Amino acid sequence: MIYIGILNLYLYLYLYESVSVCLNTSEASKNRINRVIPMKSGSLPPPTPTPTPTDPMATPLLTDLYQFTMAYSYWKAGKHLHHSVFDLYFRKNPFRGEYTVFAGLEECIRFIANFKLNEDEIAFLRSAMPTCQDGFFHYLSQIDCSDVEVYAIPEGSIVFPKVPLMRIEGPVAVIQLLETPFLSLVNYASLVTTNAARHRLVAGQSKTLLEFGLRRAQGPDGGISASRYCYMGGFDATSNVAAGRLFGIPIRGTHSHAFVSSFMGLDEIVGKTLQSLDGSSQCNDFVSLVESWLEKIQGLKSSIGLYGETNKSELAAFTSYALAFPNNFLALVDTYDVMRSGVPNFCAVALALSDLGYRASGIRLDSGDLAYLSIQSRKFFVAVEREFGVVGFEKMTITASNDLNEETIDALNKQGHEVDAFGIGTYLVTCYAQPALGCVFKLVEINGQPRIKLSEDVTKVSIPCKKRCYRLYGKEGYPLLDIMTGENEPAPKVGERILCRHPFNESKRAYVVPQHVEELLKCYWAGNSSKEREELPPIKSIRSRCIEQLDHMRPDHMRRLNPTPYKVSVSAKLYDFIHFLWLSEAPVGELQ
Amino acid sequence: MIYIGILNLYLYLYLYESVSVCLNTSEASKNRINRVIPMKSGSLPPPTPTPTPTDPMATPLLTDLYQFTMAYSYWKAGKHLHHSVFDLYFRKNPFRGEYTVFAGLEECIRFIANFKLNEDEIAFLRSAMPTCQDGFFHYLSQIDCSDVEVYAIPEGSIVFPKVPLMRIEGPVAVIQLLETPFLSLVNYASLVTTNAARHRLVAGQSKTLLEFGLRRAQGPDGGISASRYCYMGGFDATSNVAAGRLFGIPIRGTHSHAFVSSFMGLDEIVGKTLQSLDGSSQCNDFVSLVESWLEKIQGLKSSIGLYGETNKSELAAFTSYALAFPNNFLALVDTYDVMRSGVPNFCAVALALSDLGYRASGIRLDSGDLAYLSIQSRKFFVAVEREFGVVGFEKMTITASNDLNEETIDALNKQGHEVDAFGIGTYLVTCYAQPALGCVFKLVEINGQPRIKLSEDVTKVSIPCKKRCYRLYGKEGYPLLDIMTGENEPAPKVGERILCRHPFNESKRAYVVPQHVEELLKCYWAGNSSKEREELPPIKSIRSRCIEQLDHMRPDHMRRLNPTPYKVSVSAKLYDFIHFLWLSEAPVGELQ
User: Fold this and answer.
1) pLDDT digits (tens, 9 = 90+) for A469-521
2) What is the rounded distance in angstroms from the CA atom of residue B216 to the CA atom of residue A440?
3) DSSP B566
4) B34 falls in which pLDDT band (50, 70, 90)?
5) SS3 sequence, B397-408?
6) CB A62 to CB B225 under 8 A?
7) Assign residue B279 a region: left if phi > 0, alpha if psi is -120 to 50, beta otherwise?
8) pLDDT at B8 exceeding the cut of 50
9) Judged by CB atoms within 8 Å, which residues 400-429 of A form the interface with B?
10) pLDDT tens for residues B159-191?
11) pLDDT tens sequence across B506-564
12) Which residues are paired to A393 by β-bridges?
């Protein structure tokens, strides 16, 4: 018991010292004011209400039952208003990589801004927890997030294990109710954004990346979130119309195999007229024009080989599609046979369009050997350009879209290919290579007392204390490492040497002289307090932040195979405190 | 051209013959009437409207853009009303297994029952497709699913590759718009139901299975769908409150590590009184009662070893939770140390409750070696029962919940363990072992003309024609195989030998004499027609169907390693027709 007494004294000293340091950092925080929007100042108009969550299913009941049973226990113990601090973080980067992109913040803020249990929800909880006292349900009906504060790393930032993505503070019973929805809104969002960023890195900046995953996503919201966050992670467009509408993401799409096979032959096409692009003339029989071009192509005896009969239902479908979308003719060419039918049929229609001043968009390959078929198709286009003198025909866009993922794109790059755009679905949106990110939500302080969660597995031990987090940059402009400190420790300073320690490995330490220091956690929700809070930026800004940050990482952290881990550290003082608290909480065994 | 002419004659004969057979099967279909609810009969009250989709995000815009561009092309070609037949099916069972559970049907029916594009949606489409003519948007504003018919295998059935889970018929432009939402509603639903069923098979019927995956699911709907479909696949309960409310699924939950570490010590507990279960007496200091039991446990010198100081914050949390839920005390015991702290603390509280007539529920283990810790915990409970004479104490429920999946449960079974209930999250709900099911939606007939989609990969060739599907049962009561026939072929008959052919492998054939014949596809949506349609059963009935069907499969199809494939076949006539159509559509190469 004496030992425990000494520990408590130490704890007291630690906390006391923290308070004395507090004055220093409050000055530093003023520097952030020019980057934030004051939301609650007296002379300003009242802030616009934050919209509700995009998914109407994100209600206060979208949580685990134990959040409510705990809330009741807190309430019963008179503890529900105790001021708690929780960290939301993950322990391991996904996809065998060494980086993650943080996403989902805006949805969390929308969630808490509108957090309120309605009567029906309370009635359901009453039926689910029949032994709980009435006063508790009355309490539940009163709560909102006006006493909650949320600090977070900006959405679209590159983030690393153990560093809190979000710090959530407020009455413990309320904060617990937020745990599951926050994790549900951040885990998949960050995972799929990271996956999209990885696909962008492997495909390269020059390629167009299209997200085609809605049909294979994990439920409607999985599909809509995927489209949103893939765009955030660097994709160019989606096939998902609802996501396009909700988030202003460019949408793309042409036709499917069913469209092609729904035609039997050219005689089905009734309206055969097509105006030229400039409106100066009209072709009265576009079908015959297409047929005449097909004959010319079949007559070609060049490097592209001999072409016999092509599939007539396919030709009819292409012709029909071109009549509907002469400005945007892109054909799916693998319904019957890419090189024997799809490509020559496409070229016939594209050449007919060209006669009327239209420029076809290109083809989509959805099966077979994409490297080979893209190269053969390109050769065909080159030959057509040469034979018929149609300038630019060889530049036709080739889109590929059959079960693509990081590995297959990497393999295509190594083999050589002529693909300009990748349409990626299943592997992207379900995060097939690792379909879950393990974000957790851990209590780090209650009523000013730092708390720790131990585990047999050291990677699962939580880092206690309300913390500040910084990213330190080196001479070359790259981030060197992230460091966490106690809330009231002085901030690392540019040009000043600081000791950075691995949080759990005693011998891993480094001195760092930062050239630039970035504080990571910013206030995004201040409740009823008068603190300034950051604005929620539009998706295009988040996307730009993500692309820019990815671009500014040291390349060895970003490579696909055996990347170098980015260092995450704690201050010397926080290191000591973690280990002090660990020993004070872990029971000492007794051996005989 | 002569060759093509002969093929057309053959096609004509095929179709003609089908018509003549039609009369036979219409009789057979009458037998189903007693199992269906007539929805549109003159004397009956009007049917209740089908509710909207559970996820409000499942709107007509939840689709790929190409569905709308195709709709426009069909409309432009005057083809949009052509009567089309599409099959929804998958090509390969998930999880290296040989079976799949079909789910998501009810949501599809809800979707089409409420399918209607509103003005805002039309306006968005107009902006996204600016070159399309006004008449098209007018057409879009008029469409609903009154001309659509949906035939499906009942939800919760065991299903196999290539056999249509659903056959969707109606105007081609409308049916195309349904493709993506249907796939989005069926793919994940069937995948996660199958995953749940697999977890049930490996855990065994005697264990309690709890779904704890909301926080790791792919978005809010991913979480809600997971809870629903895991219950359907045989789970007992979920932690997800919203799913409990929406679907009437039992919900479960107690407390987390944060709750445990939020307490500092017993002096925090203010209200210490607890009434006995029968109300006859009151304990005024439950905390002291707990402490006295802990001392007795620490004094035990039995086979369970020596116990020193336990963690006091944990003891306070357990005591507090027991005061809130004396009838349902279940403690998470691994926050600090399972055997040195969690289990003795739990027993102290459980014994104190027992003094007042309450029976504690048990413990939850969330880290470490679950086999070892469950066995040690059980030994502890046995010793407590023996030492203190508390009858039934050894039967305390042990729940395990740390990153469990099929493999870890199988490994636990092999090692031996004392776990009674498994709480399964991440691996279950994200279907980690295979996070996507590849259901597709293929055109098989248009305006009475069978259609085929070819591919370099033979497994991707579609099976043409509007079909009927049957499951044939053998003498032992097990299903023998599924067979697809042309729509108008006579149904297989009990006791009559029928030739069943592999659809693509010429040499794989078998004669079958079925003991029972089950027609698989039933009408679930009849549009405005007067056809009877099946009722949508409640989730509990679907769950029972699933459990019963799993139970009635031949065990070698169901085993985890190297299961025997279940046979899927076509009639001799359909076989011939598939290959005839294939040859007629595939272009013939020209070699020099």
Assistant:
1) 999 999 999 999 999 999 999 999 999 999 999 999 999 999 999 999 999 99
2) 10
3) P
4) very low
5) EEEECCCCCHHH
6) no
7) left
8) no
9) 426
10) 999 999 999 999 999 999 999 999 999 999 999
11) 999 999 999 999 999 999 999 999 999 999 999 999 999 999 999 999 999 999 989 99
12) none
Q: Is A493 left (phi over 0), alpha (psi -120 to 50) or beta?
A: beta
Are A564 and A93 in contact by the 8 Å Cβ rule? The answer is no
Question: pLDDT > 70: what percent of chain B?
Answer: 90
Cβ partners under 8 Å of residue A136, min gap 6 = A71, A72, A75, A76
Q: Is the pLDDT of residue A302 over 90?
A: no
Closest CA to A97 of A52, A158, A167: A158
Place of tokens 């003549």: B20
Q: What is the pLDDT of residue B306?
A: 57
| A74, A271, A430 member nearest B435 (Cβ) | A430
Contact check, Cβ <8 Å, A62/B241: yes
In 3D space, the residue among B584, B557, B495 whose CA is nearest the CA of residue B161 turns out to be: B557
From chain A, pick out residues whose CB is under 8 angstroms from the CB of B328.
131
| A507-548 residue pLDDT tens | 999 999 999 999 999 999 999 999 999 999 999 999 999 999
Nearest residue to B491 (alpha-carbon basis) of B525, B509, B467, B508: B467
A544 vs A476: CA distance, rounded Å: 21
Whether residue A219 and residue B216 make contact (CB cut-off 8 A), yes or no, is no
What pLDDT is attached to residue B382?
Answer: 95
Mean pLDDT over each residue of chain A, to the nearest integer = 89
Q: Could you tell me how many helices (H) and strands (E) chain A has, helices first?
A: 18, 22
- Is the CB of A91 inside 8 Å of chain B's CB atoms? no
Convert the pLDDT of each residue in A248-258 to its tens digit.
999 999 999 99
Q: Which amino acid does the sequence have at A32?
A: R
**3-state DSSP call for residue A485?**
strand
Residue A479 forms beta bridges with which residues? A473
Interval B447-462 mean pLDDT: 86
Q: Give residue B9's pLDDT band: very low, low, confident or very high (50, 70, 90).
A: very low
* Rounded Cα gap, residues B458 and A257, in angstroms: 16
Give φ, ψ of B85 to 5 degrees.
Answer: -125, 125
DSSP β-ladder status, A237-238 and A208-211: parallel
* Residue in A68, A321, A436 closest to B241 by CB: A68
DSSP assignment of A248-261: ---B-----HHHHH
- Give, for A374, the enclosing helix (H) or strand (E): helix A370-388
pTM: 0.89
How many residues in chain B?
592
Helix (H) / strand (E) containing A353: helix A343-355
How far B42 CA sits from the closest chain A CA (Å)? Answer: 37
B202, containing H or E segment? helix B172-203
Cα torsion at A303, A307, A312, A317 (round to 10°)?
-10
Return d(Cα B226, Cα B224) in angstroms, integer. Answer: 5
Distance CA A15, CA A13 (A): 5
Range of weakest confidence among A154-163, B38-47, B478-487: B38-47
Both structure tokens of B567: 């046979």
**Phi-psi group of B156: left, alpha or beta (phi > 0 → left; psi -120 to 50 → alpha; rest → beta):** left
Its sign, for the CA torsion A48, A50, A56, A62, is negative
Q: Which residues of B touch A241 (CB under 8 A)?
A: 61-65, 68, 124-125, 128
| B479 contact partners, CB below 8 Å, separation of at least 6 | B158, B471, B472, B473, B552, B553, B554, B566
What is the Cα–Cα distance from A442 to A296, expressed in whole angstroms?
Answer: 70
Write down the pLDDT at residue A588.
78
